[in-house]
Each structure stands twice: as C-alpha cells, then as structure tokens.
Amino acid sequence: MPPGGGGGGEGEHGCTAQDHPPATVRVDEDALPHSTPPLPAIAPVDPQEKRQRHPEASLPEGPLVEILARVPYSSLCRFRCVSKPWLALCSSRDIIKRSPQTLSGFFYYGSNALLSFRNLSGRGLPQVDSSLPFLRERYKCIFVKEFCSGLLLCKCWELCSMRGESHYVVCNPATEEWTVLPPVEFTAQDLSHAFHIKPVPMLYLGFDAAVPSRFVVFAPLTVGCHVSGKMAIFSSETGQWTYVQSKWSSGTAIDHACKRRVFLNGTLHLTTLDKSIVTVDMEGKVWREIKMPDGLPTASDIVSIGQSQGRLYVWQVDNTHDCQLYIWVLEDYGTGKWALKHTVNVLELFGRHRPEDADYYMMFAIHPDCNVVFLTNMKKETTVSYDLDKQKVHVICTEFMCGLPYIPCFAELPSAGH
C-alpha cells in the first residue's frame, strides 16, 4: 500500500489529458457570452442512414477538425483503430501538428545494450521506432548521446565498427527528420593543456517543444570532468557554431551523467560533482551557479535534476539508510532558495517493509505536466510511477528501466536536411 493509501479516479499517472477524455461538464447556456458564434446546425439524420455513414460524417468537417486538433496525440492513436476513415482523419498532418503533446514514454538502454522505448502506460506497441530506421539508411552505427523533449542528439558512423569519420546528428523520431551538425572547430590554443591532456567537447542538446522553431547544442571543452575555458554553441537558426569564453568558476567539474542535466526556459542546467548546478543561456551571455539544497541526506548517493510545470526540481533517494525519497523545488532563481516539497517512503511504493541487501532504488524522472514521479528498483527489476497528489502507485514494467522522458514533437525540425 502506498503512503496515504489509494487515490481518486483520474488516470494511471495523474494526468487525465494523457489517457482519458475529460469528464462531461454541463454549461449554463444563458451564461455564455453572446459574442460566441454557434456551431453550424446539423440536420437530423435517419438512424439507419447514420449507421451507414462514416463516423466523421455526423459533424461538419470544420468543427470536427478543430475538436480533434485539441485531442492529445495518444488519444488520436487510439481513434485510428475505429475505421479506415478515422485512420485517415486522425493521421492528418495538420491535426497532428496542432495536437497537444505530453509525456509519451521513455527511451532507455536495456539489458541487451540496445536503445529501447517504453510507453508510459506500460502497454501496447512503442509509439516510436527506437531503432531509428530513417537514420540507418545512411549510418550503420548510431549512438544516442542526448535526449531533449522531442529531439535526439546522436553520434553516427557510416561503418559498423564505430571507426572512421563520425557525424553529430539531431533528429526527430516522430517526423523522421534529421540534420547533420557541422564539425566543432576549436583553435589549437584552446585545445592545449598544461599537462598535455587534450580537452574534448562534451555536447548537450537544448530544445523546447513549446518553441519548436529553434534548437541549440552546447559544447563546453572539458578535461575529464573539468571545464577547460571555452564553449561552442550551435544554433539551428544560423546553422553555425559560435565560440564563447566560459564564465563558470575555474575548476568546475561537470557531472556528465544523463540524469543530471535539464534544459528549461532557454537555459542549460548541469549538475557538478561539488553539489551545485551551473547554467548558461542559449546565447552564451548569462552564466550562473546555484547551490544544491541544504540538508541533502547523503553525500554518496546520486542527486538528479528535472523540470516540471516550468520549475526546476532536485531529488535524492537515501539508499544508505531508510530509502526515503526527498524532492526539492527551486522557488527563487535570484536567491537560490529551495523548498522541500515531498518526502516519500520508497520501500512502501515497492511493497517492501525493510531494505534488503543490494537493493538500489532510483527516481529517474518527474512528469513535465503534473506531480507524478517515476522510480525503478535494480534488484527487484520493477519500474513504477507514483502520483504525489493521489498517493497512487502504478507498475509500468517489470524490469529495471532508468529512462529519459520523451515528448513527441510534430513541428518541422529547424534546419532539417541531410
């Protein structure tokens, strides 16, 4: 039983827009504004004739298209199964591009070391092909380095051996569009180092599906974990890299793990090994460092960051003591003030009364639109979602899955081209 018992009846993951149609709402017509234009009148149809018509014929095309354009994409996928006419209608590019998108599922590398995709519901066929077949027409070897909203940043080789020339590619698996980035070209002076260790760029993707006209790629030069002075920033608007001097403090050690970075409000957030968060905006003009919350339960366990409802979150599971999950939210960027929002007994979420040897629990994501978190257990090989408001647990799959959130984006990829 989860802490606080069961919850209400909204969806499996607390976001009714994802999986269920909205409840019927009765409206007082006299209270509506007189300026609201009525829908076109629909002539009565004989029931026998109506059964012979296509489903979409019972509404005028204009209003029906407007209705479907406001339906979540996951619902459109279900509507396609009604009939061939519904399949054609719900596959309309115009409707899909306007359909509101939310968290669809998770990309992750499974036990077979291959990229996989898991639907949020834990059921049904994957909504995207994780093998990225549209890229394999040219590249034999593909390694996904970055996920950001609806886009992926991949390193690709034309040879199966991962040898020879490689390219960085930004792709959209929903539309199967992709664009090749030009090479990052630092000067010889930038690449020199006092201990004869050649700095290398680490690439981070920045994309906001709410502003799909632009993506950026950040490439700070690093020696090991330490930032080495310069950063390159690619903009899809110009198709070029710009080179700026890093304003982070000398010796900043970046944590390169995938779960420790966030792109939010046009700004890249990276965690450091010194328990802080460093940020830089898309133009390379605003640089900041934010200290982690006071009172982290342990210095040894992983501290991860994420974003939900436009706010930055930090969380940690105390695996060394009582398996408590602590979740903070950044309340003020100016002062760096954090607030502890939730404390959760993780053992109860997985039906345990006490920790067992080699148990390791991890919260790997937070839902971008509501108060739902996602956790996995390495030993028990179970992945669950937990609605913090309703205190309701839902099993997503029976495997250890440290996935990265995917929100489909059907807008045209900026600077798309091969």
Task: Reconstruct the topology from this structure.
Blueprint: H1 16-19, H2 47-52, H3 61-68, H4 73-79, H5 84-90, H6 93-98, E1 105-109, E2 115-119, H7 133-136, E3 141-148, E4 151-157, E5 166-172, E6 177-180, E7 200-201, E8 204-207, E9 215-223, E10 226-235, E11 240-245, E12 261-264, E13 267-271, E14 276-281, E15 287-291, E16 304-308, E17 311-317, E18 324-332, E19 337-345, H8 346-349, E20 361-366, E21 372-377, E22 382-387, E23 392-397, E24 404-406
Antiparallel strand pairs: 1-2, 1-24, 3-4, 4-5, 5-6, 7-9, 8-9, 9-10, 10-11, 12-13, 13-14, 14-15, 16-17, 17-18, 18-19, 20-21, 21-22, 22-23
Short description:
The chain is 11% helix and 34% strand.
Whole-number tally of structural domains: 2
- CATH topology (fold) name of the largest domain: Neuraminidase
Fraction in beta strands: 25-35%
**Structural category:** mainly beta
Which residue ranges are poorly predicted, with pLDDT under 50 across at least 5 consecutive positions? 1-11, 16-45, 47-57
How many individual β-strands?
A: 24
Compute the separation of the termini in Å: 52 Å
Counted by DSSP, the helix tally is 8
Write structural notes for this entry.
The chain is mostly beta strands and 418 residues long. It folds into two domains: 57-100; 105-406, Neuraminidase (6 Propeller), CATH 2.120.10. It contains eight helices and 24 strands. The protein has helices spanning 16-19, 47-52, 61-68, 73-79, 84-90, 93-98, 133-136, 346-349; strands at residues 105-109, 115-119, 141-148, 151-157, 166-172, 177-180, 200-201, 204-207, 215-223, 226-235, 240-245, 261-264, 267-271, 276-281, 287-291, 304-308, 311-317, 324-332, 337-345, 361-366, 372-377, 382-387, 392-397, 404-406. Strands 7, 8, 9, 10 and 11 form a five-stranded antiparallel beta sheet that branches. The chain has a four-stranded antiparallel beta sheet with strand order 3-4-5-6. Strands 12-13-14-15 form a four-stranded antiparallel beta sheet, with no helix packed on it. A hairpin with a 5-residue loop joins strand 1 and strand 2 (115-119). The longest helix is centred in the first third of the chain and has 8 residues, at 61-68. It is globular and about 65 Å long. Mean pLDDT is 81; it is low at 1-11, 16-45 and 47-57.
